[in-house]
Amino acid sequence: MPRPESTRFAMPWPWRLSAAVGGAAWCAQLLYRRLLGEAFPAPFYWSDVALVSLLAALPLVAQSADWLRLAFARDKTPENPSDGSRLLLWLAALICALLLPWLYVQARCRHDLARLDELTAQSRVGEAAALARGLAGLAPSAAFRGLPMKTVAAEMTNLERELRQRTSAPLPAGATDEDRRARARDLAQLGNGEQALATLASSSALSTSHEGNYLRGLVYLDRSEFADAVAAFQSARQSLAAAVPAPDIAARKIELIRQEAYCQRKLGRYAEAEAAYRELLKLDPSADTHFLLAQFYQDAQQANSAQFHARQAMTLDADRYAAPGQRLIDNLITSHFGCWGVFASESKVQPTTH
After folding, report:
1. Residues 24-78 pLDDT 10s
2. Four-CA torsion 29, 32, 36, 41, nearest 10 degrees
């Protein structure tokens, strides 16, 4: 008997059940997050991982439900697929439910490890601790800077707890500028930008010193307010030039230029960013600086210059930059126009001249 016209194209009930199960699971995840905090429960830890796992499991739910329906059905109609076909569909759904989340987690962990390195370099302890905890759950066997991820997560969590304890009490009435600077630094590391800026603004000396302007620039950088960050870092450089010479003044200048160059790059001011990176290279011709220049020139689509500086970084510090440098060069060959010179030089296994 032909099916009624109104139901011919209706969604099969196993898929309706699958969608209902998925919706209920997602609502439960959101409720868990709302009641207990930002983190999702194990084994997901992040909302995007939970969503991918949920979507990948829906075909398995639908196939399992359909198989149970046919197993208990009283009328075996000829249009029902054979047991062998149902088994193949169920196995395909099972592979999808297991493989897709695994692939996504691997990609997410690679991205998060690079992000953790960036956050740690910027002393953004609050964000770094949360990210490390998620990584420790998703990839407990991973390592960060030679340490097991669980150890890294525990150390960062302890540091975060210590910072929160130090900032929990208000500053005393007779707090010095050094006290205020230390409090602003702790708040900035925790990601409390507004409180950090307010603390810096409470002291006229900190408003004009290179320490205060540097911290102000870091807060703006954390909030992706790159124009304000550039202005703060430039003010810090001016204050540093007028400061009394100190043993670490060169290192402070290098850090200020590095941060300013990064912000100029994020603003799309490539001429200003290149000038800052070139100045940085004169002061600090290290592997780190060369790799920063390689990333900048890759972003600016200057393939030969990017390749040159990647090779320099790989030569100066092979342990740290051999793999990322080669990935950058491979990406130049496959992704950038006008990169025949890169391909030709790589085929000869010779670094280009600059």
Report:
1. 666 666 665 555 555 667 777 887 888 888 888 878 877 777 777 666 665 555 4
2. -50
Query: Considering its fold, how many domains does the chain have in total?
Result: 3
Report the distance separating Cα 339 and Cα 335, nearest Å.
9
The CA-CA-CA angle for residues 101, 102, 108, to 5°, reads: 85
Query: What is the per-residue DSSP string for 108-163?
Result: HHHHHHHHHHHHHHTT-HHHHHHHHHHHHHH-TT-EETTEEHHHHHHHHHHHHHHH
Reduced to 3 states, what is the DSSP secondary structure of residue 166?
helix
Please give the biggest Cα pair distance in the chain: 95
Q: What is the DSSP string of 247-278?
A: TTHHHHHHHHHHHHHHHHHHTT-HHHHHHHHH
Q: Which residue type occupies 32? A: Y
Q: What is the pTM of this model?
A: 0.69
Angle CA(30)–CA(162)–CA(196) in degrees, nearest 5? 80
Residue 339's domain comprises: 281-354
Residues 132 and 44 in one domain: yes
- State how far the Cα of 40 lies from the Cα of 247, in Å rounded to an integer: 47
> Is residue 173 assigned to a domain?
no
How far apart, in whole angstroms, are the C-alpha atoms of residue 217 and residue 238? Answer: 14
212-262, pLDDT tens digit by residue? Answer: 999 999 999 988 999 999 999 999 999 888 877 777 888 889 999 999 999
Q: Which residues contact 255 (CB under 8 A, 6 or more apart)?
A: 214
Q: How far, in Å, CA of 56 to CA of 53, rounded?
A: 5
Q: Which of 135, 141, 127 is nearest to 153 (CA)?
A: 135
